[in-house]
Amino acid sequence: MTVRSVVHVGPNLLPVPPPLGGAIERKMWALARAQVALGIDAKVIAVSAGDPQEPAPHPEIIVVASPNRAIFGLRSAWRIRREHADIVHLHSRPEIAVTLRLLGYRGAIVLSFNFPIQLPAVVHRVAGGGYGRGLGWILTRVIDLFLPESRYAAEEFRSRGGRIPVGRGAVFWNGTDCPPVQPRNRPERPQALFVGRFVRQKGADLYAAASERLPGWDFVAIGPRGEFHSVGGDPTAVTNLGQVDHLGPQPDAIVARHMASATCLVLPTREWEVFGMVLVEALALGTSVVASNAAGPPEILAGCSAAHFFPPGDLGGLVAAIEAAADDSDDVRRAGQRFVQRFSWPTLAGTSLALYERAEALRAGGRRSPPDDGAAPYACEVMKSPSDGTIDGPTLGAVDRLSTGYVQPSLLAWRAREAAFYHAPSAGAVIDLGAGYGHFTREIVPGSVAVDLDFDQLKAGKGAGSYSAAVCADIAALPFRTHSSVSVISNCVLEHLEDLPGALAEIRRVLAPGGTLQTTVPLTGINDAYLCRRPWYRDMRNHQLSHRTLLPLTGWRELFNLNGFDVVAQEAAVTEGEGRRWDLLDAPLFFGVRGKTGFGAYVRLLNRVPSLRRPHRSISKSLARWILNGRYCNMTPICEYFELRPLSS
Question: With a threshold of 0.85, does the pTM exceed it?
Answer without folding.
Answer: no
